Amino acid sequence: MESARFLVGQFLLAMPGIGDPRFEQAVIAMCGHDEEGAIGIGIGAEIDGLGLHDVLDQFEIEHGAAPDAPVHFGGPVDPRRGFVIHSTDWGGQDTIEVAGRWSLSGTVDVLRAIADGTGPERWIVALGYAGWGAGQLDGEMLRHGWFNVTADEGLIYDTAADDRWGAGFASAGIDPRLLAPETGTA
């Protein structure tokens, strides 16, 4: 099965000492990965001082039923572009289902649906994304950078953003405090 090497529907956890401060203790929900590259949405950090109501105001959408939930740092690529990771019980024109585990939407229709109470049952909002070109993530997985886990969707919806990194490692039976910040050579 060729697709087994791809990480769609899994979570990438930044290893200690990843070397890029934008990804320290990052947790990335992998939404696409194939021979052409990969895309994921960061769910491990919230953007200070920015809530969903601020995003809705930008689009002149009444807040309605929407709580002023935190907005996540989705990644360093295109940080003004918004994404919603959500339960599979709702779909819009551009919604993609991710390995039957969650869905990803990137147009304003999902925000309108959340605000009017007809959107997905569970969701988080993020700005920006993490992206890799062809073969780039595969190479990073071979070096000291990322660890992938297949934690359940509770990591997205039931775990606080600040706790997701540790919870992701715990789902694989690993205490991240015991991980070395660099690799050696034999």
UniProtKB/TrEMBL annotation:
GO terms for cellular component: cytosol. Pfam families: DUF179. It comes from the Bacteria. PANTHER family: UNCHARACTERIZED PROTEIN YQGE (PTHR30327), UPF0301 PROTEIN YQGE (PTHR30327:SF1). Belongs to the UPF0301 (AlgH) family. HAMAP family: UPF0301. This is UPF0301 protein FPZ24_09395.
